[in-house]
Write a structure and sequence with these properties.
The chain is of the alpha+beta class. Helix content is 41%, strand content 20%. Strands 2, 3, 5, 6, 9, 12, 14, 15 and 16 form a 9-stranded mixed beta sheet that branches. A 5-stranded mixed beta sheet has the order 18-19-20-22-21, with helices on one face. It has a 4-stranded mixed beta sheet with strand order 30-27-26-32, with no helix packed on it. The structure holds arginine and zinc ion (ZN). One of its GO terms (molecular function) is alanyl aminopeptidase activity.
């Protein structure tokens, strides 16, 4: 059934307090739920309907006495409550006694067991799998939780808030009682029970309060917790410094689990994390892992204000907390960068994610607005649109009100809404009201189309130079293609940050108001007077809006931007445009792919690589070609094999033409001394890694043995995982005979490190295809004794790395990749619908495919859709994929 945003109605009852008592047992956990409720007088009197799922109901008491009830679907319906009688709006108590089976919970929603430890995941609608409840975010209650369990097996008992009591019970059991001082919606409830150890840190916040920070992990993982703790301390300090938002709890806990559907969860005071985003040391984690941990720890911590103190009224408002919190974690990571260049690198990386993942979503069958209008399964809407595009919407608001204005807006938002469950409108209104003279306040209603209209707008820019009048005119035109259910779009409010360069690459002086143009109409022109020669426009600086910018730059103009633009984002973007143009030309050209790159492009890349002042991280980004997914998005009809062949040919050409430069780059960047995960040294490792990969690729062509030998040596001697893994992947990507040996060694070295084995699996499933060898390799990996499809990380490392991240290997003319995909979707759906639905998204863009891929992909999707027993999650994805809307 479809849930619609317009159908929102306030709850008929409020729940003021909840007392939960758990007798934890993997096979049968008993849950006593004692609630104080009262009718919501604003809503007509009606029965109380509580959500529940896979629960065994034992007893229901109202005000201490038995009462009648009935079941309707999953809901428990109470229709003769005292409060339904005349004048019956007095509070009442409701006691519900249920049991559930955590060890059988393979969906990892609600209460489940992972490696002998109990965990919960309640967002979005998992609390109903723990007890009957009003499982919706606008019902906020005060929680008291008592956990009882065998002391030996579950020595650590955690829940939200503060520990107020603990002690022994009979039969080797013990208990702990937790009180959360903050009201919260049930999706923020959490408990953990098991054998865990904690890294602890006491901190004193600005106001002088003391807090205890804890990072809980399995006993063998203590040596991988330092970075997460450092990230947490930095997060606390940052939110206070930048937004004046303090930690509001005596104790803040992070707990890591290796079985988790998503990245992490912001449960009040008790964040639960996928181990992937907690555990790191230099021997087992790469620079990317370190950076991800910093941003996810930040993200969950920042939710404490943006999500928990102010929460969502309903799940359509998800971006209220997610878009804002992604924006905050992006800003956090940028603010931690000591150098401006590192900030720019972070911005480029974030935009790359948006454009390779969100733009395709916006153009495909699952396209939805940042604030969706309807859903079948809310779990399907934890998307790059809600998260990453939502963050871009917040970023545009900051651009329109300025950084200080944004801080003012945030302050007003909390003054108005602390403790409430609100909508995206409330947030935008607070920002506008705090900045009454801003462009945002003036344009608030049209600006909010970013929340309601799906699809990526395209902005077309055309420059015209009038030499006689010394005048440059820039016309901007916007349009947005239809998306499911939205045929026509109204114009978006698009902030366009810009500059002009002269032919020598010098920046023309512009007034501040000229440097930010806000496009509000379908078509508008900007006029610049006193311009002495035809300028090169640098548009959408810093990627100031989530749009596709179309501009008919000449190669010369792009080369000027690449060499000179003061905006690092556009400098990178110019190089990407040059590369993309060549890729598209080679794809369109008839016949075999032959040397797609010209001397001018190669020289420009050499100049970037050899540049004296650009830093290594930027060079690595600039010398990385646009991904196959990104290239494919630019095409009307996609032949994935052709795209793959062209991109590979470009890489090989760059490898060969710049061979001496890659040697220099490798030698100049390979030694970084003691490992530190800071952006500057990570950038050096990244560039050395790219250089080594290029050298191995070139060696593959020339048959030279020196560089593969060096890579193998590097693989063995590396002092950290980044260098080791880069060397391994250079061998694997070049398909060198030494790769086998290296992979075997790597597995032996890290056989007990689950997260490292994930990398080992992912590298092989994501390897470039050579004559169709990857699919058989993937099937073999699935037969490996370390493979387990029920562990989401492991399933992702093999199946997703192949289906969602390796287009050149997945799209096979014999359709075997699609058959494999449909089998896995159906299989995984039986035990974990959320993971299956993510996998189901791999064929979102099937309509774009050339034959024979298109027909075969449609057939594979239809095969999944024909299953009678499908979860709502997968059903919604495949139905939308096949719909003709
Ligand atoms: N709120 C979490 C985060 O973004 C994600 C939870 C997603 N859960 C889900 N069932 N889809 O940090
Ligand atoms: Zn979040």
């Amino acid at each position: 059934t479809v849930v619609r945003r317009e159908d929102y109605a306030p709850p008929a009852y409020w729940i003021d307090t909840v007392e939960l008592t758990f007798d934890l047992d993997p096979a049968k956990t008993r849950v006593l739920n004692r609630m104080a409720l009262r009718r919501n007088p604003a809503v007509p009197a009606q029965p109380l309907r509580l959500d529940g799922e896979e629960l065994n109901l034992a007893r229901v008491l109202v005000n201490g006495a038995g009462c009648s009830f009935k079941m309707d679907g999953g809901q428990l319906v109470l229709d003769n409550l005292p409060s339904l009688e005349e004048h019956g709006d007095a509070p009442f108590t409701l006691e519900i006694f249920t049991t559930c089976a955590p060890e059988k919970n393979s969906q990892l929603m609600g209460l489940y067991v992972s490696q002998g430890t109990f965990f919960t995941q309640c967002e979005a609608e998992g609390f109903r799998r723990i007890t009957y409840f009003l499982d919706r975010p606008d019902v906020m209650a005060s929680y008291t939780v008592t956990l009882r369990a065998d002391k030996q097996r579950y020595p650590v008992l955690l829940s939200n808030g503060n520990l107020v009591e603990s002690g022994e019970l009979a039969d080797g059991r013990h208990f702990a009682k937790w009180v959360d001082p903050h009201r919260k919606p049930c999706y923020l409830f959490a408990l953990v029970a098991g054998q865990l150890v904690a890294r602890e840190q006491r901190i004193v916040s600005r106001g002088g309060q003391e807090h205890l920070l804890q990072v809980y992990v399995r006993p063998g993982d203590m040596d991988k917790t330092e970075h997460a703790m450092n990230s947490l301390m930095a997060s606390v300090a940052w939110d206070e410094a930048r937004f004046g938002l303090p930690l509001d709890l005596e104790r803040f806990m992070i707990v890591a689990t290796s079985d988790f559907n998503m990245g992490a969860m912001e449960n009040k005071g008790l964040n639960i994390f996928n181990t992937k985003y907690v555990l790191a040391n230099s021997a087992t984690a790469t620079d990317t892992d370190f950076a991800n941990i910093e941003s996810v720890v930040g993200h969950e911590y920042f939710h404490n204000w943006t999500g928990n103190r102010v929460t969502c009224r309903d799940w359509f408002q998800l971006s209220l907390k997610e878009g804002l919190t992604v924006f905050r974690d992006q800003e956090f990571s940028m603010d931690l960068c000591a150098e401006a260049s590192a900030r720019a690198v972070k911005r480029i990386e974030d935009v790359r994610v948006l454009r390779t993942a969100q733009f395709p979503e916006d153009a495909g069958p699952m396209a939805h607005p940042v604030r969706p209008d309807s859903y079948v399964e809310i779990n399907n809407f934890y998307t790059v649109t809600v998260y990453e595009k939502g963050a871009e919407v917040v970023r545009m608001m900051q651009t329109l009100v300025g950084r200080e204005g944004f801080a003012r807006g945030m302050k007003l938002y909390f003054e108005r809404h602390d403790g409430q469950a609100v909508t995206c409108d409330h947030f935008a209104q607070a920002l506008a009201d705090a900045n009454p003279d801003s462009a945002l306040a003036r344009l608030l209603e049209p600006f909010k189309r970013w929340y309601s209209q799906a699809g990526t707008p395209r902005v077309r820019a055309e420059g015209h130079y009038d030499a006689a009048a010394r005048r440059y005119t820039l016309s901007l035109t916007q349009r947005c293609a239809p998306t499911p259910g939205q045929a026509l779009k109204q114009p978006f409010v698009i902030p366009v940050a810009l500059g002009l360069l002269d032919a020598e690459g010098r920046e023309l002086p512009l007034a501040p108001e000229q440097r930010l143009f806000v496009l509000t109409e379908v078509s508008q022109s900007l006029v610049f007077d006193g311009v002495d020669s035809e300028p090169v426009p640098s548009l959408l600086r810093g990627f100031s809006a989530p749009v596709v910018l179309e501009c008919d730059y000449s190669d010369e103009q792009l080369l000027i931007l690449l060499a000179n633009d003061s905006d690092p984002f556009n400098r990178w973007e110019a190089g990407q445009r040059l590369a993309l143009r060549r890729a598209l030309a080679a794809i369109a050209a008839p016949g075999a792919v032959d040397a797609p790159l010209d001397a001018a492009f190669i020289e420009a890349m050499r100049a970037v690589l050899r540049h004296e002042r650009l830093d290594a991280a930027f060079k690595e980004l600039a010398l990385t070609l646009p991904s196959e997914t990104y290239i494919a998005e630019q095409l009307e009809v996609v032949d994935p094999q052709r795209v793959h062949a062209v991109r590979e040919a470009m890489r090989e050409q760059l490898a060969t033409a710049l061979q001496a430069d890659w040697v220099w780059a490798y030698e100049a960047h390979k030694d970084n001394g003691a490992y530190r995960p800071d952006p500057l040294s990570a950038g050096r490792r990244a560039l050395a890694g790219l250089a080594l990969a290029m050298l191995c690729l070139q060696a593959r062509r020339s048959g030279d043995a020196v560089w593969p030998g060096k890579a193998y040596q590097r693989f063995k001697d590396a002092g950290n995982m980044t260098d080791r893994f880069n060397a391994l992947s250079a061998l694997v990507v070049a398909d060198h005979p030494l790769a086998r040996e290296a992979l075997t060694r790597f597995h032996a070295m890290f056989r007990d490190e689950a997260l490292v084995l994930d990398k080992w699996f992912a590298l092989q499933a994501g390897a470039p295809d050579r004559g169709g060898n990857v699919l058989p390799a993937v099937k073999q990996l699935m037969a490996h004794r370390d493979f387990n499809p029920r562990n989401p990380n492991r399933a992702r490392s093999v199946i997703f790395s192949y289906c969602n991240a390796n287009p050149g290997a997945f799209h096979r003319a014999d359709a075997a990749g699609y058959v494999f995909w449909s089998e896995r979707v159906i299989e995984i759906d039986r035990f974990n619908p959320q993971v299956a639905a993510r996998l189901a998204r791999a064929l979102d863009r099937w309509r774009k495919l050339a034959e024979p891929y298109r027909g075969a992909a449609r057939e594979a999707i239809a095969r999944v859709a024909a299953q009678t027993e499908l979860s709502n999650d997968v059903r919604e994805v495949v139905t939308r994929a096949l719909s003709d809307d």
